[in-house]
Amino acid sequence: MKKYIILVPFLWILTGCKYFLDVQPQLQVDESLAITNANSAEVALNGLYNRLGSDGYYGSNFPALSYLSGGDIQWTGSQGAPQEITARKVTADNGYVGSAWQSIYRTILAANYLLETVPNLNDPLLTATRKSQIQGEALAIRALSYFDLVRGWGGIQLVLQATKKPSDNTGIPRSTADATYAQVLKDLTDAEPLLTETTNRNRVTRKTVWALRARYHLYRKEWAQAETYATKLIDDAASYKLVKPYSAFFANNAVNTNESVLEIAYSNSFKNGHFNWWLPPALSGRREWAPNAQLVTLLNDANVGGNRKELIAQTAPPGNLWYGKLYYRTPTGTDPAYLIRIAELYLIRSEARAQQSKLATALADLNAIRDRAGVPLSTASTAADLLLAIEKERQVEFPFEADRWFNLVRTGRATAVLGISDANKFVFPIPNSEILADKALTQNAGY
User: Fold this and answer.
1) How many domains does the chain have?
2) 3-state secondary structure of 262
3) Of 257, 279, 308, 309, which residue has the fewest beta carbons closer than 10 angstroms?
4) Where are the alpha helices (DSSP H) in 53-192?
């Protein structure tokens, strides 16, 4: 996606279908359809969440980059793009990589448009408090978008202005990874005071920002701050807790349980694409992604997976095929996408505490996760043992979410666990189409 493309927020939601996202966007803003009043601002904000949940972003392809790269998911179908990812032979023409990149930047452009337009609206129905809330949500979603770009591709182009003409956001050199992370922190810091301290599992609030801060500081090895922000949510036991058993946050059509900090809601007109790739044909899917033998063994091990075995199921004989069933609902495609769960905050705090030699409390946080899963409590007694135990716990706690690959890269464990000796492969390639469109954009080394 060329970053000079102009998006028309009002049209995103009027279509009522996310497949409109595949249509070539408008190259200029139609002011009559842009953000001009309270109603169109709210419609554009809804459109921003649709961007976040689109097929290319959390609706399918971005999480897939993590779990297809992480060594526990096998490709069983006919598509070339996922085959490249699982075989670790990703090219700069890979469709999943290109789709994720484009979708994340589209989300950023949508946020930029809200950030520029909403403060200047003069509509009595749009109060100052509501303006602040909209801006805070846009900032936090832009922060998450840049966080996902930097952990996937390294330092990237920082596009911080709304795009009105082709020259607005072309010719921007790539920022360093540190500068990109700095922008993430700035956006989160700016968002926090604009948002209310409420609980909303489908929309960004101040509590959502705290959760994103915990994740951010973990990646930046700022252990004390990671612990502090994770604690803010864990201590809010009235709003967030580990639901029991493990499957309670997704089974029986559950939505918005106390497990969720942020999940994207889907419907018949705005579908989550995951079901198509995970479910077998008998359940209206294609099963082109499936847990491999290693993951099946781990999840079915009473001492490792425990009740997390509910994440997988097996087809009837003679096929006997294992498949993932986190995304399973009828009507198909109405499953939530889980962006942040309280379980992650426990493991963030456990790791942060272990890194600070707070071994007893680090172990307690790890064992909270294990207790919920119905597996024996850990007896890890050293920081090194705890960190390894946390890594293994993440493997079976989040196998179908955007976690495994990024955490192995973050901790420097991708070589030991996955056997990847070329450090250039710890980031994805910049899509060739983007480099052709903007000569200021340079390719990652090794591609």
Assistant:
1) 1
2) strand
3) 257
4) 61-69, 80-86, 95-117, 128-153, 177-191
- Domain assignment present for residue 20? The answer is no
DSSP-derived letter for residue 291 is E
Q: Does some domain include residue 295?
A: no
Q: How far apart are the C-alpha atoms of 327 and 290, rounded to whole Å?
A: 12
- Listed in sequence order, the DSSP H helices in 118-205 are 128-153, 177-191
> Does the pLDDT of residue 23 top 50, yes or no?
no
pLDDT tens for 148-184 read 999 999 999 999 999 877 678 889 999 999 999 999 9
Mapped onto helix, strand or coil, the DSSP state of residue 180 is: helix
Q: Is the pTM of this model over 0.70?
A: yes
383 three-class SS: helix
Per-residue pLDDT, 33: 57
Q: Return the pLDDT at 21.
A: 28
DSSP for 434-446? HHHH-TT--PPTT
Q: Which domain holds residue 62?
A: 38-265+338-421
CA distance 262 to 374: 25
**Cα 104 to Cα 225: distance, rounded to the nearest angstrom:** 27
Residue 73, φ and ψ in degrees, nearest 5 = -115, 130
In sequence order, which residues have a C-beta less than 8 Å from that of residue 418 and are 6 or more positions away?
70, 71, 88, 408
- Residue 174, by phi and psi: left (phi above 0), alpha (psi -120 to 50) or beta? beta
Q: Looking at residue 372, which CATH number applies to its domain?
A: 1.25.40.390
Answer yes or no: is pLDDT of 18 > 60. no
* The pLDDT of residue 101 is above 90: yes
Report whether pLDDT(28) > 60: no
Identify which of 266, 280, 286 has the alpha carbon closest to the alpha carbon of residue 312: 280
DSSP 3-state of 289: strand
Nearest to 420 by CA among 78, 90, 73, 74: 90
pLDDT digits (tens, 9 = 90+) for 30-87: 444 589 999 999 999 999 999 999 999 999 999 999 999 999 999 999 889 999 999 9
Q: Element (H or E) spanning 46, and its range?
A: helix 38-52
